[in-house]
Amino acid sequence: MTATQRTVVGAAATVRWQPTDGDGTAAEPDGAITVTAVRSDGTVVLPAGTAATGTDADERTVTIPAGELLTPDLITVTWAEAGVGARAVTTVEVVGAWWASIAEIRASDASLSVTDVYPAATLARVRAETEDEFELALGESWRPRLTVVTVTADGAVLDTGLTPLRAVRWATTAAGTSIDVSDVTVDADLGRARRTTGWPTGRLTIGVEHGHDAIPADLRRAFTWRCRTRANLALTVPQWATAIASGDQTFRLAAPSGRGGWITGDRDVDAVLTRIRDERRMVIL
């Protein structure tokens, strides 16, 4: 089983795993739990046998120090049980920044300050969901992050397919041989990486850092508003509803935004997403 957690550059990360039985119910493992953590380029962050904390059927945790999280990366944490072997894998994505802090999301609407209704864990969840939703809709990352891609090389220039391209952090051949990337330069808006000495011909796996440095103010406002909407999905009338039934009466709603032809179903949010997406497409073209 593989799970994903997200953390930010420069901050220590507590990685969590809940041991369960065959039915998915929290259960105490028979053996001690240890971890190993490895960067996307294969270098070790936490050596095999690093002890996890936690007892009984509680979740197990391990902390990755801030000093190990100084650049965007993907860190693979493998949880192992003594006498059993690997039990689970957690991918820790280290990103350059959050789209918005939990405090900023709360400040965007007074109702979100009620922590009993909107605990930090709920807002963190909807933040992660909205980050993925927005970046998928825009086709680009709006904060630095690292993605591992496999490409076919034939010459000096590689097309990574990721914009804006910031750097190629590492590269290997299909046989696993490391490639020196110290002479690589990038065309950010085209997502292309040029190697002065040329790329080895064939299939390559590369660690690519990409993403914008900053989020425009209107996009950030749209993001926090969308977080509010997601946090309230179980509490409010869906924005795509056309009517509300109450007793023996039905109330028609004016101009529902709906999902058809829209990105999120919220016209104001979608207007911002569409404009920025189209502007970026013009730059790339």
Structure description:
- The strands form 4 sheets. The protein has a 5-stranded mixed sheet, with no helix packed on it.
- Strand 3 (33-38) and strand 4 (44-51) form a beta hairpin.
- The radius of gyration is 22 Å and the shape is flat.
- It has 4 helices and 13 strands.
- The mean pLDDT is 91.
- The two termini are 40 Å apart.
- By secondary structure, it is of the alpha+beta class.
Which parts are unreliable, with pLDDT below 50 for 5 consecutive residues or more?
none
Total strands: the figure is 13
Strand content: 35-45%
Order of helices and strands: EEEEEEEHHEEEEHEEH
Arrangement of strands in the largest sheet: 1-7-6-3-4
Helix/strand/pairing category: alpha+beta
Distance, first to last CA: 40 Å
Q: What is the C-alpha radius of gyration, as a whole number of Å?
A: 22 Å
Question: Helix count, per DSSP?
Answer: 4
Helix content: 10-25%
**What would the average pLDDT be, to the nearest integer?**
91
Query: Tell me about the biggest sheet?
Result: 5 strands, mixed
